[in-house]
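Students often ask why we bother encoding 3D structure as a string. The short answer is that it lets us treat folding as translation between two languages. Here is a chain of 165 residues written in the first language.
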Amino acid sequence: MQHTRRDHLVFLGAAAAATLTPAALSASDDPQVIEIQMLNKHPENSKERQVFYPDLVRAKVGDTIRFVATDKGHNSTCAAKGAPEGATLWKGKISKDVEVVLDTPGAYAFFCTPHRTAGMVGLLLVGDVSDNFEDIKGGRYRGKEKKRYEDIFARADAMLAEETS
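And here it is in the second language, the structure alphabet:
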């Protein structure tokens, strides 16, 4: 049986999701620092270029996300259309780490400004995402950005379904 790239990505997403189960998230009420690397190529699939790793993160309100400029030439940005109403937005500088404290529950779609059209995008799910997840999922995305978000949203749906079962 031959596996497709999508099969591989679904497996990777499931493996990542397994490490962030609701029990693991609730194991500590203390805010956590979660690192996301900004990379030229995926560490486990060299055919995937311009990526955040991981590109899907489950977090709690109060957690800090640290975007690490592992490879130069990238940043992380979250615009108003990609965040819950009233949330703290961010726009990191190119080749610089950026940290954001997640102070508002909801879904956050983020991207690398120079590589957005190359599909360098990601998603944060913070606490209860019911207010804006479907809106972000139904957003207008183009090209490789659209294809990557389709995969990310499929993994996010599976993650959220697992939490409710």
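Translate back mentally: The chain has one domain: 5-164. Keep this in mind for the problem set.
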